[in-house]
UniProtKB/TrEMBL annotation:
<keyword id="KW-0479">Metal-binding</keyword>
<keyword id="KW-0249">Electron transport</keyword>
<dbReference type="GO" id="GO:0046872">
    <property type="term" value="F:metal ion binding"/>
</dbReference>
<dbReference type="GO" id="GO:0020037">
    <property type="term" value="F:heme binding"/>
</dbReference>
<keyword id="KW-0408">Iron</keyword>
<dbReference type="InterPro" id="IPR036909">
    <property type="entry name" value="Cyt_c-like_dom_sf"/>
</dbReference>
<keyword id="KW-0813">Transport</keyword>
<keyword id="KW-0732">Signal</keyword>
<dbReference type="InterPro" id="IPR009056">
    <property type="entry name" value="Cyt_c-like_dom"/>
</dbReference>
<protein>
    <submittedName>
        <fullName>Cytochrome c</fullName>
    </submittedName>
</protein>
<dbReference type="Pfam" id="PF00034">
    <property type="entry name" value="Cytochrom_C"/>
</dbReference>
<feature type="signal peptide">
    <location>
        <begin position="1"/>
        <end position="26"/>
    </location>
</feature>
<dbReference type="InterPro" id="IPR002327">
    <property type="entry name" value="Cyt_c_1A/1B"/>
</dbReference>
<feature type="domain" description="Cytochrome c">
    <location>
        <begin position="32"/>
        <end position="132"/>
    </location>
</feature>
<dbReference type="GO" id="GO:0009055">
    <property type="term" value="F:electron transfer activity"/>
</dbReference>
<keyword id="KW-0349">Heme</keyword>
Length: 138
């Protein structure tokens, strides 16, 4: 009988700890940290700019990325593959692309090994989503 009580208490304690842990895990799984994403942006800034006054460099400026059609930044010479990709950038498409750009758009000019860490991708996404098409922070 005592063993049964101990097992029940252990299960109750486990259940209680899950109730407190799961919301934190769910938040971590779904949202990114823009501050951490700004640090990840350092991997991008050699080729891209973002924010007010951003210009095209080796790669296009990244203002207002989400909701934009691929290959449409004014003044940037995109690859034919990028222009023909039919992509409209959203969080899921960006995550797939940034993991392995050449796999998502074969023929892209972007030379980047990719970001494999899911949390880093969410963080970078949160950072990018702060900027509207004019580079103003939302």
């Amino acid at each position: 009988m005592q063993a049964l009580v101990m097992q029940t208490l252990a299960r109750t304690a486990l259940f209680a700890s899950l109730l407190f842990t799961l919301p934190a895990l769910a938040q971590d799984a779904g949202t990114g940290d823009a501050s951490a994403g700004e640090r990840s942006w350092n991997k991008c800034r050699a080729c891209h700019q973002i924010g007010e006054g951003a210009k095209n460099l080796v790669g296009p400026q990244m203002n207002g990325l989400f909701g934009r059609h691929s290959g449409t930044v004014e003044g940037y010479s995109f690859s034919a593959a990028n222009k023909a990709s039919g992509i409209t950038w959203d969080e899921a498409v960006f995550a797939e692309y940034i993991r392995d750009p050449k796999a998502k758009i074969p023929g892209t000019k972007m030379i980047f090994a990719g970001i494999k860490n899911e949390k880093e991708i969410r963080d970078l996404t949160a950072f990018l989503k702060q900027f509207d098409k004019d580079g103003k922070k939302l």
